[in-house]
Design a protein that fits this description.
Elements: H1 9-16, H2 21-35, H3 39-49, H4 53-59, H5 67-74, H6 84-91, H7 93-99, H8 102-111, H9 117-124, H10 129-141, H11 145-157
Helix pairs in contact: 1-2, 3-4, 7-10, 8-11, 9-10
Length: about 160
């Protein structure tokens, strides 16, 4: 859902702070319900993509907006000003957390003062490479565009990918 820009890294953190899977599922559903469409459609499509075809079919519905609800939903959208680098990071979230080797990237970011040595230790405290990469992504999403640019330079040095 992050790659479809339906939930943010902050939403994910709020979901993951719950101990049990049931509580995490409830937190995700609360977000989907509050956000309505298109979050709902992305959620249902995600269920289908991960093998929950029956549940997805039960939940699939047509959202034909009435003229008043469409204008109410778009009201205030012009106030949103999300930096492009954050959008690019979120759209590539899954690829980054599953595919990158964080070691050399974190070293580069420390030398460029994007993250501190303590941040590097926090990243390394993750149990799996994915947890380490999630922590790195969380930090990058809270940094400025210069931090993002240094992240891209580190990716180029590791000849991994370009976002």
């Amino acid at each position: 859902m992050m790659t479809n820009l339906v939930i943010s890294v902050d939403d994910r953190r709020r979901i993951e702070q719950h101990a049990g899977q049931d509580d995490q599922n409830k937190a995700l559903l609360d977000i989907v319900i509050k956000r309505r469409e298109p979050a709902y459609s992305v959620f249902v499509d995600g269920l289908r993509n991960y093998g929950y075809e029956d549940i997805a079919n039960d939940l699939k519905c047509d959202f034909s907006p009435s003229p008043t609800s469409a204008s109410a939903e778009t009201e205030g959208l012009s106030d949103w000003n999300v930096p492009l680098y954050k959008v690019r990071l979120q759209k590539n979230y899954l690829k980054v957390i599953t595919d990158i080797q964080h070691d050399s990237i974190v070293d580069h970011l420390i030398t460029r003062d994007v993250v501190s040595v303590d941040d590097g230790k926090k990243i390394e405290s993750g149990k799996t490479p994915q947890e380490k990469n999630r922590t790195l992504m969380d930090m990058l999403l809270r940094k400025n565009e210069q931090g993002f640019n240094e992240f891209l330079k580190a990716l180029e040095k590791t000849q991994f990918m370009q976002i």
